[in-house]
Specification:
- It is built from one helix and twelve strands, in the order E-E-E-E-E-E-E-H-E-E-E-E-E.
- It is mostly beta strands.
- The strands form three sheets. Strands 1-2-3-4 form a four-stranded antiparallel sheet, with no helix packed on it.
- The longest helix is centred in the middle third of the chain and has 4 residues.
Length: 169
């Protein structure tokens, strides 16, 4: 109850006409057509994910989701093909392109695509929460091959690299 308004994520497609609204606690993800802002239209909606943060590719065809499962389900990076949403296909199909998790996943929060020297990456950041979850970190994920993403590097504060802060074997 106390969290229902706390965690939401939004992203605009680069064309400014498609708006993605995500809710971690309601397990919802919705694409809205805002080409006429006075008459928004839902293009696609699902309750299949636990999106904590969402970002869209430069061409508007891929949605990057930082998913944070509660007690069950998937935590990590999910990449969706939203090209049919972008093309305004009626009843679009939105397949999973790939999913990636990592040993010290805690609460994935953001997944931001970027390009460096022509190579495609995602900067993913976890919350630095406590409890029974391992301490979070940030990481760079190679997404040059969208079907086979992999972690290139983890970025952690020195204090979070202490053995007591990790649960990796």
């Amino acid at each position: 109850r106390g969290h229902r308004d706390e965690v939401r994520a939004v992203a605009f497609a680069p064309d400014g006409n498609t708006f993605y609204v995500a809710s971690l606690y309601f397990h919802s993800l919705t694409a809205v057509d805002l080409s006429d802002p006075t008459a928004p239209k839902i293009l696609w909606a699902t309750f299949d994910y636990q999106p904590h943060g969402v970002s869209i590719s430069a061409d508007g065809n891929r949605l990057y989701i930082a998913e944070a499962a509660f007690s069950d389900g998937f935590s990590g990076l999910t990449i969706l093909d939203v090209s049919q949403v972008q093309k305004r296909v009626l009843n679009p199909t939105v397949p999973i392109v790939s999913r990636l998790t990592w040993p010290q996943v805690s609460t994935p929060q953001n997944a931001t695509p970027f390009t460096r020297n022509g190579h495609h990456y995602v900067l993913e950041t976890d919350e630095f929460g406590g409890g029974s979850n391992p301490v979070g970190a940030a990481r760079i994920i190679d997404v040059q091959n969208l079907k086979d993403p992999f972690v290139v590097s983890n970025m952690r504060l020195a204090i979070n690299n202490h053995p007591a802060a990790t649960t990796d074997p």
